[in-house]
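Review this chain:
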Amino acid sequence: MFLHPLSSSLLSEQKPATKPDDAPAKEESQKEKPGKDNSGKESTTESEKKEDPDKAAKRQEELDLLKQQMLFAPSTERRQAIHHVERLEKESEQQFFLDTLRKLALNDMDPLVREAAVRLLADIKDKGSGDTFLKALEDDTRPVMREALRGIARIELKSAEARIFELLKKEEFKENDNVTVGMIRTLAELESKIAADFLSEVYAKDDTNLEIQRSILLYYGNAEIATKKDWLTDILKDKNEDIVSRSYAANALGKIKSPDSVEPLKGVLQEIRDLRSSRERARHNPLKQQAILALIRLDDKSILPELKAAALDDDATVRLRAVKQIGQLKIEEFREMLEYKAKHEPSRSVKKAAQEALDIMDGKKEADGDEDSPDASEEQKETEKPE
């Protein structure tokens, strides 16, 4: 496979290769390294403080060549060059390419190059690319629009809500389209209430895709739209609704945090307890877990034993979700249980989740996204074998 000479140069800068014949020289250089001062920190010689002008010039030549590759090489190599920018360790070096990336995002004739450029600007949360993200929403290629929406959400560009809503009203809603879902999700992450009434009308249509409907339910919770509390409660209690959609409604009610939701949520839990069939109770697990989570958000401590029971369930999928929820909500009452699971839990995924939950509680790790969002995949069983 052809590897551009610039690629290997950029990626190997931090760790230059050493031939076997160079070993004595390497040992010699290690001997000459400065020791530690009384503070325990590495001392630095005057020559080390000054950057080698020749090295800096050579590095700038490499960056200039990478920029030229992004602009003038064949499409595949241009995309590879964009990926190399993402892997640069120095923020100052990434910033050197920002103007070029913005131009590629809007003007390049290859939609895959435009997509790669917008994706990278979103990944690095470039706040200076707000106008670029807005203009990329007009792209005639859906993947570019999707990445633009992600960029808007990541830099929290609240001024984009009106334009996103205009585009959302033109969508069909009949298929599970990731751009349509991305619009709804981005408005939620911007905490925009602009689409609240419109989306309830979309939800009620017979031909609206089920996954779109579920995204709408989550929108009301993530944007904390309290005016839709009663509507969400009706969906929660409606036994004719599918279980996952009812779970999404429970999730949304927990985030809206209205005290009026406590009794309906408890009523759903009692409904599940009263099911005679163990298979039916298992099928309702997503709804049960989301109702429990919502009640915890509503500061109902009486529900904690149910969450603990879920963390001890025979079904590893149920345990996994419960452990993730405990970490997400930083419930200190369950620290001892998490410590046990982090060492002795038979399921590898649950064991890992327990350690991650402890790390979140101790401030060593931030929760990745909304781990407690319901997911249709919850109904699938974990197939891994215990250790």
